[in-house]
TrEMBL record, chains A, B, C:
Molecular-function GO terms, alphabetical: hydrolase activity, acting on glycosyl bonds
The protein's name in its UniProt record: Pseudouridine-5'-phosphate glycosidase
Top-level EC class as recorded in UniProt: lyase
Tree of life domain: Bacteria
EC number in record: 4.2.1.70
Required cofactor names: Mn(2+)
Task performed by this protein: Catalyzes the reversible cleavage of pseudouridine 5'-phosphate (PsiMP) to ribose 5-phosphate and uracil. Functions biologically in the cleavage direction, as part of a pseudouridine degradation pathway.
CC cofactor note: Binds 1 Mn(2+) ion per subunit.
Active-site residue numbers: E27 (proton donor), K161 (nucleophile)
Record lineage: Bacteria, Pseudomonadati, Pseudomonadota, Alphaproteobacteria, Hyphomicrobiales
InterPro entries: Indigdn_synthA-like, PsuG
Residues reported in the UniProt entry to bind substrate: K88, V108, S142, A143, D144
Family: Belongs to the pseudouridine-5'-phosphate glycosidase family.
Length: 305, 305, 305
C-alpha cells in the first residue's frame, strides 16, 4: 500500500505543528464549486491572508491529482481554482478521488475528516449543509451533520445555508448530540442574515469560552465536533425578511422548472445571486472572512489551553 | 487543561470500584425537572436506599457548579434538588455546563456518557426519550436513542415515555442496532402501563440472563448500550386503555393551546398529572423504584460474570 | 467470562488467515429464511464452491447452538439449512442468540460484524436491506445501512433489494457517508434487473480498483464499509419494467391483505415468486453467484495490495 504517500502537508503547516502554533483548516468546494475564476482564487487568497494576519496558519484542504493536500501553495490554489470538472468530495468519495488520481474540492464533511487526520482542531467555512426543505419525503440530508456527530473539529460557520430547513437541521443536530453555539447572540444566524426565527441552542461570547468548551469535551472523552454559528457583520448582512422573499422565489422557480436532487442547491444559489443583484455573493464572502477571523482566534485560544 | 480536575467520584463509589462491588448509575433530571422540592429529594433518597438494600451502590449523576458528580452526598443532592434554573443536560451540552461552571440534571444520554466514563455498566431511570409524536414532520427525536446506539451501558427503564410514538421509537432502535429486552414479558411495557400494543423485540426473564447477554456483546466487541423495558408492578400500574384516553386528551389540549417544541413534554406530563388526580406521579415513582431494584440485580449479576 | 469460547473458526479459514490467502464472508439468512430445504443447502454449497474455484476461501457466517461460526463444515451447513425456527440475526440480537444458545442466520449487518471480528474484508450477498417503501411515515429502515456506516467491510451486492425504496436508500447512504460503487456501469442496478432509474453515485470497472479504493480508505483512517452494486448478468436478468409491474402488484396485494411490519418483505418476495413463475428465484441465485465471483476477485486483489 502507498498509505503514507498520499498526503502532502504544506511546509508552513508542518512548521506550525512543530512549533505548536495555531492552524485553521479551510474547505475548498467554495473554490471549485462556489464562484468562478479568478474570483474564487482571489477570495481564497484573501481568506488565507486574513488568518495569517490574526496570527494563525491557514490550511486549505483539497485533493489534487490524487493527493490529499493539507494546505496549498499559491500555485496549487491557482491550479485547483481552474480545474476542469473537479469533484465535490464528501465522506463517501474523498478516498475515491485519491485512489483514482482525481482532483476535487472538499465539503465540510471531507474537510473535517482531513483536518482531524492532520491534527487541526478548528475549521472555517461559510455555511454547513443540513436538512433540505422537503426532506420529510425526499430524505435529502447532508453528510455534514453525520460528520459533526463523529469527528472532533470545531466548525466555524454562519449557520446552516439559509436555503435549507434550519429548524429540522437543528433537530437532527440535537438528536445526534452536536453542540450548536451561537457566537455573541441568543438567536441562530441564517447565513446571509444575522437572525432567524429560531433560538440558538447554546451561546458563548468569546473565543476563549469556545476553546474551553471543546477542551472540556476532549477531557471528558466526548466524541464529535461542534458547530459555531457566527452572525455576519451587521453592515454586510441582507435582512432576514428580504432574504426570505428571495429564497421563496428561487424555490418556486426551481419547482416550476422541475429542478431536483443535486441540481437544486446550485440552482437556488444562482437564482438568489440574480435576485439580489450580486449582493448575496458579497455577503457570502464577508461572512467567510468573518468566520475565518473567529476561527483563528479560537485556534489561538485552544493552543493556549 | 484542567482535565482531571472536573470529575468528583463520591467516596462510597470509589470504594465500590476498588472492591469490585456492583454500582448502579441514576439520572438527575428526575430531580431537577421531574418533580417539585422536597418530593424530588425524598424520592431520590428513597431510590438510592433501595439500591443499597439490594447490595449495590447508587451513583446519582449530575453537574453541580461545573463539576461532574459521580454520586452525590446527601448535602449535594439537597442542593441540586433546590437549584434555581438548573440545565437539562444531554450529550450536546454536558461539557458546556462543566466548562461554564453551571449546574444541571443529566438526561438518559448524559447519564450514560458519565456512567461509561466512570466505569459503571448499569443505569436505572424511569423512561427513555424517543421519537416524538409527529416526528415525521418535526424530526423531533431524542438524543437518548443515538446514545444507546453508541455507549455501552445497560439502561433499565419502563420503556419509552408513553407520550412518545412507541412504534417509531422501536423502529429507530432497530435501525440503530440497539437491543430492546422486555423483562419477563412478551409485550413492550408502556411506562405507566404494563402493556402496549407492540410485541417486545427480545425477552429475558432473569437479571443473570441480561448480564450474560451484555457480557457476550462485550466479548464480541459489539458497541453500544441496551434497553431493558421493565413493566411497572401490576398493583401500581394505570391500565393502558385508561392512559390512552388521558394521553389523547393532553395531546389535544397541547394542540389547542399551540404548545410546541421543548414545551410539549412538560405540558403533557403536567396535564396527565391533573387528569389522573396525581396517580401518574405515584406510578412514576413506583416504576423508578422497580427499575432501580432490577438494575441492582443486573449489576450484581454482571459483577459475578 | 467465556469470551474466547464463543467463536469457532472453521479450519480452512484459519489456514487461509495463516497463509494470507483471500477469504470471502457469506451471509446465512439466505439459507435460513431465503429458500426451502434442500434448495437452500445446494445453493449455499454451490456458492462456496464457486468462491473456491476463483481461488478464495468461503466463510459462511451463522450462529449454531450459541456459537458464532466463521465458516461451516458441510455437516454444519446441512444442520443450519434444516434448523427449526432459526432466528434472523442483526446487530441487536447477534449476541443474544449466542448468549441464549440459539441458532440463526445472519443478515447483512450481523455478517459484517462477524466478518470484521474475524478479519475478513469482503462479503458477498444478494441484496442489502434499506429504506422500506412508506418509511416517511413508518420509519422502517434496515440496520444494514447503519452497519455500512460503521463497519469496514466491502459488501458485494446486486444493489438494495428492489422491493425497497431505492432512491431513499441512496439518500441515507449518502447522509451516512457510505460509498456506493456500481461495478462496470453508470446506473444503479436493481437486484433482479440490471438497471434502475437512478444514476450510481460512483463507478469502478475492476476488482483491483475497488481494492485500491478500500485500501486508501483504510490508509486514511476512514471508518465504515462500502457497498458494491454489481448488476446481474444480462442473460439472467428480469427487465426493470417487467419487475416494476410485479413489485407494484405484490405491494398492492400486501396492502389489500393488511400485511404489515416484518411480514411485508417475506410476503412480497413470495408473491413475486408466484408472479414470475419462479423466475425471480432463478435470477436471485444467479446474482448471488455473480456477486460471490466478484467478491473473490476483490479479496484476491486486496490480498495483493
Ligand atoms: Mn443530499
Ligand atoms: Mn427534541
Ligand atoms: Mn425494519
Amino acid at each position: 500500500m502507498r498509505s503514507n504517500n498520499i498526503i502532502d502537508v504544506h511546509a508552513p503547516i508542518a512548521e506550525a505543528f512543530a512549533k505548536g502554533r495555531p492552524v485553521v483548516a479551510l474547505e475548498s468546494t467554495i473554490i471549485t464549486h462556489g464562484m468562478p475564476w479568478p474570483r474564487n482564487n482571489e477570495m481564497a487568497g484573501d481568506v488565507e491572508a486574513l488568518i495569517r494576519k490574526e496570527g494563525a496558519v491557514p490550511a486549505t484542504i483539497a485533493v489534487i491529482d490524487g493527493r490529499l493536500k493539507i494546505g496549498l501553495s499559491d500555485q496549487e490554489r491557482e491550479k485547483l481554482a481552474q480545474a476542469k470538472d473537479p469533484m465535490k468530495l464528501s465522506r463517501a468519495d474523498l478516498a475515491f478521488a485519491i485512489a483514482e488520481g482525481k482532483s476535487g474540492g472538499t465539503t465540510v464533511a471531507a474537510t473535517m475528516i482531513a483536518a482531524r487526520m492532520a491534527g487541526i482542531a478548528v475549521f472555517a467555512t461559510g455555511g454547513i449543509g443540513g436538512v433540505h426543505k422537503g426532506a420529510e419525503t425526499s430524505f435529502d440530508i447532508s453528510a455534514d451533520l453525520d460528520e459533526l456527530a463523529r469527528t472532533p473539529v470545531i466548525v466555524v460557520s454562519a449557520g446552516p445555508k439559509a436555503i435549507l430547513d434550519t429548524e429540522k437541521t437543528l433537530e437532527v443536530l440535537e438528536t445526534r448530540g452536536v453542540p450548536v453555539i451561537a457566537y455573541g447572540t441568543d438567536t441562530m444566524p441564517a447565513f446571509w442574515s444575522r437572525n432567524s426565527p429560531y433560538p440558538a441552542p447554546l451561546r458563548l461570547d468569546t473565543a476563549e469560552a469556545i476553546a474551553r468548551f471543546q477542551a472540556t469535551r476532549t477531557a471528558l472523552g466526548i466524541d464529535g465536533g461542534m458547530l459555531i454559528a457566527n452572525p455576519v457583520p451587521a453592515e454586510e448582512e441582507i435582512a432576514a425578511d428580504v432574504m426570505a422573499g428571495h429564497i421563496a422565489t428561487a424555490q418556486r422557480d426551481a419547482d416550476e422548472k422541475g429542478i431536483s436532487g443535486k441540481n437544486v442547491t446550485p440552482f437556488l444559489l444562482a437564482r438568489i445571486l440574480e435576485l439580489t443583484d450580486g449582493a448575496s455573493l458579497v455577503t457570502n464572502i464577508a461572512l467567510v472572512k468573518n468566520n475565518a477571523r473567529l476561527a483563528a482566534r479560537i485556534a489561538t485560544a485552544l493552543a493556549a489551553e
